[in-house]
């Protein structure tokens, strides 16, 4: 998005809606409708199998296909996804990280096919491609969990991709350094700025040191680095955060990388406001939360977002409907076109209050950046668990403030009385649901794809990819060859898994701060657990599990921390476990209760598998509880399938949950509750 001169009215930001579900064909229809409504950019949500490098027919994909995004398994899916949408004229953001190189290779290949079909010069079309691949693997280890490979090989994939795009797709943003999920994982404004900039330093150092980009071209690299940030409801603080972010980025790129062009040093960022801050209780309040959060990244012209996508009011309930997404788009359009926001210079320049807050965040961020660099940089701080433990501790502190009433959430821990909502009236379909047949269709489709492609060409391309992966050669051309040969997402990732291996990031749970002996409720539950330990003759043990591909582990980590604080022995092995692995761990560890966390909508598929597995293993007496974004109708189905308790975001009092779990265990052991 070109920046206007100070004499012009500021141009509106790129307006997006994060969208995609079911299939490439269904998502293509949704994109066309959104563009017709005035959306100026596309933001592709991929399903979890695609994000984690699996095909729809993989065991771990069961229950996950098409739920939180669109499945893209090969170039045929990418063709269908953008059918009728000229890629040379589109501005496309793709939320994809570990397989970012693969998805961009598919996108570039389809753009090349479009150019050839129209008789246009391929290089000219590629030079016009605009958009972003998220491609920030550091934050995946810290918060979102869709990583595949160890940090070293992951950084190599990012480096190769940046080097290739700078030379061949010069208007594309090959990485979107994403502090968004850091905030959702508990980061304070200072931590969000510091850890995002530490990631940027790690990436830019790797590109500079790779020898693939001349020093004279580092300004081109810096100019194509974009960020994706979070904006919470404390909009004065959030706006000050963005002004601090902007100033620090300018400082780092000038001093560390010698970039002299001020335009190249501008902080270029997109935003989605805080989805996990939206509430299930009184969800209509989310509308004003979204609007206030949007102001944080739009009011200050000098630090204004150049792309915004807003969640819908009902995302705490489930997948938004097209009408809900339209409402979110209209919020942006009203602000941009009806108000006078874009007509003025930065209205906060000269404010001593704002400048004091900006200085505070900058000082704290500089100190934290220095601390991470002293540890060896962002990669080392991930591998040691330092950054993860800091985020887990920060989120625990946030939750304690919410539980004790210091941090008010309207409709949740204060002002809880409400009238019935006409938005959720009986008979109203409040959320979008995905037909289970979608997964079966995707499995059948990929089997047919493998049958009809040139398998010899696909195998040859995969062998070449593995050969190149064992060298220091850039991997992008080999990846494009795989894309054009009809290789699938799972096959590309699987080939690199063979060479690079897989990775399990530190959970940060063991190093997080305890809730404190002084909390009366925690002390009461702890005493109750001690008494139960004595009565059953052993210490109570809880397994906290994340079945399926959902990597949003914040809730599971907070449950594990609070369970430890009240006296449970906690078994928590991190994310992406099969139901069979969870059952095996529960039996081997002799746990007294299994707690599952699922946010991806796959609860009806993966949770009953754990219950059935425990019964088959002769451990059917172990109660299973589940927490996540679970609609009321699904809650009833889970209880009918043998789940002992269901918790949703409205159940925010973790100590009360722990008390209920102790009562459940006592009940199962025939003790008084």
TrEMBL record:
Cofactor(s) in the UniProt record: adenosylcob(III)alamin
UniProt KW Transferase keyword: no
UniProt protein name: Protein MeaA
Oligomeric form and interacting partners: Heterodimer of an alpha and a beta chain.
UniProt key word Thylakoid: no
Sample GO molecular function, one term: methylmalonyl-CoA mutase activity
Record gene name: meaA
A Pfam family reported for this protein in Swiss-Prot or TrEMBL: MM_CoA_mutase
SUPFAM superfamilies registered for this protein in UniProt: Cobalamin (vitamin B12)-binding domain, Cobalamin (vitamin B12)-dependent enzymes
Family stated for the protein in its record: Belongs to the methylmalonyl-CoA mutase family.
Source organism, top-level taxon: Bacteria
Entry keywords, A to Z: Cobalamin, Cobalt, Isomerase, Metal-binding
Segments forming domain B12-binding: 539-668
